[in-house]
Structure formats: C-alpha cells, structure tokens
Amino acid sequence: xxxxxxxxxxxxxxxxxxxxxxxxxxxxxxxxxxxxxxxxxxxxxxxxxxxxxxxxxxxxxxxxxxxxxxxxxxxxxxxxxxxxxxxxxxxxxxxxxxxxxxxxxxxxxxxxxxxxxxxxxxxxxxxxxxxxxxxxxxxxxxxxxxxxxxxxxxxxxxxxxxxxxxxxxxxxxxxxxxxxxxxxxxxxxxxxxxxxxxxxxxxxxxxxxxxxxxxxxxxxxxxxxxxxxxxxxxxxxxxxxxxxxxxxxxxxxxxxxxxxxxxxxxxxxxxxxxxxxxxxxxxxxxxxxxxxxxxxxxxxxxxxxxxxxxxxxxxxxxxxxxxxxxxxxxxxxxxxxxxxxxxxxxxxxxxxxxxxxxxxxxxxxxxxxxxxxxxxxxxxxxxxxxxxxxxxxxxxxxxxxxxxxxxxxxxxxxxxxxxxxxxxxxxxxxxxxxxxxxxxxxxxxxxxxxxxxxxxxxxxxxxxxxxxxxxxxxxxxxxxxxxxxxxxxxxxxxxxxxxxxxxxxxxxxxxxxxxxxxxxxxxxxxxxxxxxxxxxxxxxxxxxxxxxxxxxxxxxxxxxxxxxxxxxxxxxxxxxxxxxxxxxxxxxxxxxxxxxxxxxxxxxxxxxxxxxxxxxxxxxxxxxxxxxxxxxxxxxxxxxxxxxxxxxxxxxxxxxxxxxxxxxxxxxxxxxxxxxxxxxxxxxxxxxxxxxxxxxx
Length: 697
Prior knowledge:
Distance between the termini: 71 Å
Helix content: 25-40%
Largest sheet: 7 strands, mixed
Shape: globular
Number of strands: 30
C-alpha cells in the first residue's frame, strides 16, 4: 500500500510542479514587474545587417527606419513633404543654339527687350554663353518654351535633333570610342545609355554631317549590328531640372554635418552597376546629379517626369565620410544614421536603440527601444503575459488567439497588403480578355474572402495606396454572375460539355493556380477559388510551392498560368514598371505580360502630368482600364497587426507651433495614420513617458 502511494507521488510530483509553474505564469502574466522604462518589442525573425538598401526582412526594415531618415516623407493625406530636405523646386532650362556669334548677340538682345514679359512667362534667368542662350523657367511649360523660340529667327538657330543608336551590345563602350575620335562630336549636347544596347542623344548642328560620320563608324564596326534612327527635331533643347535644398540643421549620429556629399554618394551607390537596390530603375529618368553647394543639388532629368520626387523619397541616405572607399559590411553591423534613434549595440538576442537627443524634430520621449528576437509563438505569448516585452507583430494565428484577451490591445495597420491572382497573358487561353473576365464573374469574392482570409480582410479598393489623393473612390470589380461567365466564354468560342469548356480545337479550358505552400490563408483561398471555377465548368488545379520557387522560378520567368500573390502597395503614383508593355520580359516588373495601347498611353501621360486635376483623372482612368482588362483578379487587402500590453504603450509626438521652430508634445492613441504605423514608431513610448509634460526632454 505504501509503495503504491510512493509510486503515485513520484509520478504526480512533476505534474504538480508543472501545474504550479503554469499557475504562477497565469497569476503574474498581467503584472508589470520590470523596473526599467525601456520599450521592448518582440521580433519574429533575426533582422540581419541593418542595410536600408536591402533589408533582410520586415524586422530589418522597421529597425532601419528608426536609424536612417529620408529626404521626403508622406503626411497623413499621403502628400509628399520635405524632411531632410528643406524645399524643392522644379525648373526647366531651355537651350537655343545659334549658327553665328552675331545671331547669338541679336538673340540675347531680343530676350532683354522682352523683359517686361519675363514674369508672365515664368522666366527666372537668361544667360548667353558664346553661341548658346540658356533660359531658366519655373516648372515645366512646353507652350512657354515654344513662345520663347518665337523671339529668334528660325534661320539663326541650329536645329536640335534627337537620335537613337541601337546595337547588339557594347553600346556604351562603342559610343565612347566613336565620340573620342569623331569630328562632329561637338554637336552632341546630351547623351545617355538606357542599357548596353541603346544610346539616346540630342545633337545641335547639321544633322546630315553627324549622321554621315556616325554611320561610317558603325558600318566599319559591323559586329555591333547598329541601327541609327532619327526620332524628332526641335528648335530648342529642354532640360527639366529638380533643385533639392537640404536642411542645414541635420547631423549624423557621430556629429558630422549632413550635406549634399552624402546625397550624391548615396545616389551613386543606389544606381551603380553593382547595385541590387530594387528601386534602381526608378532613377532611369536622371541624366545627371550636380552638387551646387553643401546644401543644394541640381538634378538634371532626361525628360519631364512628374513623379520624380517619389524616387528621391525612397532613396536611403548614408554617410559618405564613413563609407566612401570602404566595404559596407562592417558599417551595417553598427550603422550610423540621421534618424530619431541611434544604434546602441547588440546584447544576446536584443538590438538596442537609444534616442537621438540632437534630432532636428526634437528628441523622442522614449529613451531606449529594444528589439528582442523571439522566434517561437509560445515564447512571445509568455513574454507578453509576464511583461518581458511590451508588444510585437503577431502572425495571423496569434491575432486570433490574442484578440479576445482583455489584457492586450490589437492595433491594425493600413490595409495595404493586396492579395490577387496574377494571370499569365502569354497563355493562349488567358490571352483573350473575355476569358479573364469570365473567370472573374465566376467568383463570389466577398464571400470567399470572408470565409478564408479572416475578418481583417477588406474588399479590394483600387490599384493605389488606401487614401491616395489622386485615386478618389473605389474601383468596381466584375460582379459575381455565373450567367455572364457562360456568355463570355461562348462569345470567345468555347462550348461547355459534361467535363468542362472546350474550344474549336477540342482543348479543354484547364489551368494551374500556383500558391505559396507556407501561406495557410492563401492555400484556403486558392482551393475555394478552384471550387468556384469548377462549379462554372472551368478546371483549375492548385499547386503549392515555396515562395522562392513560385516567384523566382515560375512567375518571373513566365512559366505559369495563374499565381495567387500578395504585394505591399506603395504610396507612389508611378506604376509604369508593373503594367507598361516595355516592361514585359523575364525579370521585369510586368510579369502578367499585359500589352495594351490604352494602358500604355495613360501610364506615359501620368509621367508628364504636373496638374493635380489631370493626375487624378489619369489615375482613375488607369484603374478602370486595369479592372476592364483583368490581367489580375484582385481579391482583398489586409493590414498587419501589432499587439501591445493594454495601457502600457502610447504615442507622444511633436507638433509644430507657430512658424515651426518650436514644437509641443501631444499624446495620441496608437493607431495607423496616413502611411501607417511604421511612420509613428519614433514616437511610441512606454510607462511614465506617456504622461510627461514639457517641450523637449
């Protein structure tokens, strides 16, 4: 009997101990016993090197955003505002080339005589340089440039001719060799290489002489298989110029002054031949970047480009004095920025950031923010319940488990993660717009999204970032209408039999839908879509792959029928790389293969629309065209969540007072505004700092 009780006790003791431990955790999980006032945030992945050009993951991107600042930021209405910049200005330099010195002299006199009209024209400056007159205009005004050309007799001017030289390769090398020896090279006023097969240039002089010499050179080098094409001719050459003026009160974390040297260095790093920056091609519109002085840059554009500032908004700025001529690896392990927080070091699984007391907007209230690596969901749950951490970015499953716990509060970010089915328009079945529209009408999107993606998913509202000023209203999607599906397929030459839809060649309408294996919600949605299409007689097989295989090996190479994808919407306007016909190629942005003249035209006009009303009109037109063409079946959008211990974390942000030289500190709830939670992170605070008063810490 005694032995039996001893056996029971030996078995029960560990169980009781475990139970007691769990009870203890349950008792203390709502208590805050930490003595420090650090804001500690859990992260699910190792942030890796803090390289803003290529963050390893979302965690790396978040931490980098606190260390490095940007030239421009978005306000709560999603309009660009200066940040490290003090101001910017778009001007246009108009250049006229005269045949003789006497012609140039008379031209300068004509400009001076018309001085009373300068203000009306927006003419800021007029300079004569030997046979050339340069006029500087406010903004971009083509009609004004044409009016100014009327000041000069046509026979006094050399025409400006735009040319393209296409080669089978070595375009840059061969062009440099040609200009080094060409007599007519002095005619070249502007030249750039779009890639290693194309040179674009503008010449001022007698085009026949230049073309003759260029033709002789390239015919002699017949291995280049060169084609020289005249594009257009004009009486002047326009150089759109973006003037960027930096703030003069910004310093790097090591105390060095922030200047144009840093911006030029960062631009060169971003656009260099070895750069792998994802936005590198966005700078293709730039002809040259010139340093005017320590705080002024002149960016000369190849042609007018209305969204030019969007690219400079994305450019990470790095310290030239610490990186020039050195390998970047060690720097990104202990980075130096101009942002609201300084890198303070690593300790175990934690990265510490200390506030930048010299931050030009005012030092954040939170003295130290710590990011602690917790890979395991159980570790994150225990850390939250025992107040080891104050918040973290949960997975979908964690959102479900934590949403009903009164000790925590969930804050949802802007719904900018779009889910959609991308169709491959190279597929002979999907090439027909009627088939793509039929697939859309066969799906009850609202029901499927609610059943598979969860309550936080919202219906798709458009191509552009939620709340964008240039995309008012929601884009309409094809309504669920099985009869319309049948009508469209029949009109496209398909006939329904017992086993599906067949075309005239007796091919069955059968497709494969790729989905990411590890994305549980997308797998559910893909299977639900396949069931909807099956009810309409359309056979769709679902294939699960790793993200790398699905995107790298299939989508970007064009080896797919359809793929269920998601992307984070960018607050910018320019979607040229996603939809324009010129971007249809392996590895390019237009992976659906859409080639549509109307879409191309709108995308091109958007790049030269400087009027806000015209911009809005074109953005809405683009949205309507994409919905009509259905290169993608857009489904829904979601916003990431953050979970915080209730009442332990808040936000205290600086609000400008009067002329903006002073700030007051204002307490606000943690919530997504404008471009989202990441923008407000510098002002997150924990504990006593929430209620502190005064101007600056």
